[in-house]
Design brief:
With 434 residues, the chain is mainly β. Helix content is 5%, strand content 49%.
Length: 434
């Protein structure tokens, strides 16, 4: 039998207050995050400095904590010196320090972090409607080393018009090989201290409707370096730029490079939208470091529908080696953005119909796989197996370039089988992961 209790005036007021409190609490959880403070961290789980270690930063704002997890690194040589340096920079910023040790040749490395926002004192994820993340002091060592920060899943980013940073598209994080992010690469010049007034070394990213942010901190050298220890600083707040420059208004959905029978490279790309885009520059390199402008293709300029572009680069009598291509788009105001790199492998030795080339072998991070000519521009599946037959990594391209890259950094050392499959044909090779 149901019992109904009539509400008195006082009970009505009490109920109304309870509803307002409940609604206010829910609304607060959905408000903008505002400035987030990263300080007083402690190890939550795992072994400090190791992969999968989780650190808790309490009270990043009035209602949330942050859990920072080490997702992985490019190699075991990359070490976490400190999860948060406090004797320099800014106490409110997240400031990890990394060390790759000495390197004897050109090297690229990184450590990946996942920053999750949770309700205070719990592990329950808390969604934020808007948050700003500013990377500070991205520079070099006055010699051969340059720092870089890479962010994934942001909606926009802002840099100074006279920025010293180089922006590159970057694809793949641990567990999500197709996720596209943005890399901000510093110059070789070293600037003392961490100064928020030097906006030419900064970028501010905007995130919306998320409960976690993935970031990679890394470095790259053009040769040997005796010391690679670097500190990174990320402040979760918005900053003002003298002449702000926002994301280039072009969305690139595809960029492929295939080698045809006439020793020409067919470069094709598709844009999903363009706003005031002027032209595209095809950049070319034979060492992956020094690029030159190979061609210019004019853009449609303003469109909200897919647009297809192509260019054939004649390699002439070149028979052996590797050629690297990048696509640089530029708008009418001079803002530029660079695509991912595409690779063409040339060999005077002909490949059989169902054979692949893999290199470098042994490999430490990025494995390149060159497929047969008649597989190019087709759907190709790339799979990595242990010798015991366990699938440990997979990449699928609906329109494959002649050479694709697979990230191997998260795999343990040992021997693996690389398998490529196209239209029922399969080719495989054994490789060694260092």
């Amino acid at each position: 039998m149901k019992t109904f209790v009539p509400l008195t005036r006082n009970m009505s007021k009490a109920l109304l207050i309870m509803l307002l409190i409940a609604f206010g609490t829910q609304a607060q959880a959905q408000q903008n995050a505002g400035e987030l403070v990263f300080d007083n961290s402690s190890i939550e789980s795992g072994t400090a400095g190791s992969d999968n270690a989780v650190y808790r930063f309490p009270d990043v704002n009035e209602t949330m904590d942050a859990l920072v997890k080490i997702k992985g690194r490019s190699s075991s040589a990359v070490q976490l010196v400190s999860i948060d340096i406090t004797n320099t920079g800014f106490n409110k910023a997240f400031q990890p320090q990394l060390d790759r040790g000495s390197v004897s040749s050109a090297t690229n490395w990184w450590m990946e972090f996942q920053i999750s926002f949770v309700n205070k004192g719990t592990s329950d994820l808390a969604e934020i409607t808007e948050a700003f993340v500013t990377a500070l002091d991205i520079d070099g060592n006055n010699s051969r080393l340059r720092e870089w920060d890479a962010f994934y899943g942001n909606s926009t980013y802002t840099i100074e018009a006279a920025t010293q940073l180089t922006m590159n598209a970057i694809t793949g994080i641990i567990g999500q090989t197709s996720l596209v992010g943005k890399q901000f690469l510093g110059s070789l010049t070293d600037y003392s201290g961490i100064d928020t007034s030097n906006t030419s070394l900064m970028t501010t990213l905007r995130y919306t409707n998320t409960n976690s942010i993935t970031v990679r901190f890394g470095g790259t050298t053009t040769g040997s370096a005796s010391s690679t220890r670097r500190m990174y600083s990320v402040w979760f707040k918005n900053f003002t730029y003298a002449v702000p420059m926002s994301t280039l208004p072009v969305k690139l959905t595809s960029f492929t490079a295939t080698l045809n029978k006439n020793n020409k490279v067919d470069l094709k790309w598709i844009t999903a939208s363009e706003m005031n885009v002027s032209h595209f520059i095809i950049e070319k390199s034979t060492d992956g470091i020094n690029y030159h402008d190979a061609a210019m293709v004019f853009a449609y300029g303003n469109t909200t529908s897919d647009k297809n572009y192509s260019y054939a680069d004649n390699l002439g009598n070149m028979q052996d080696g590797v050629v690297y291509y990048r696509l640089r788009s530029e708008d009418v105001d001079g803002k530029t953005q660079t695509s991912e790199t595409r690779i063409i492998k040339l060999s005077s030795k002909s490949m059989t119909t169902a054979s692949i080339m893999t290199y470098p072998n042994p490999v430490s991070s990025e494995l390149r796989i060159t497929i047969p000519a008649d597989w190019q521009s087709k759907k190709v599946s790339y799979e990595i197996y242990t010798l015991g037959g366990k699938l440990v990594n997979k990449l699928e391209k609906t329109s494959s370039s002649q050479t694709e890259s697979v990230n191997m950094s998260s795999l343990g050392s040992g021997m693996y089988i690389v398998r490529a499959i196209c239209n029922g044909e399969m080719a495989q090779q054994k490789i060694i992961k260092q």
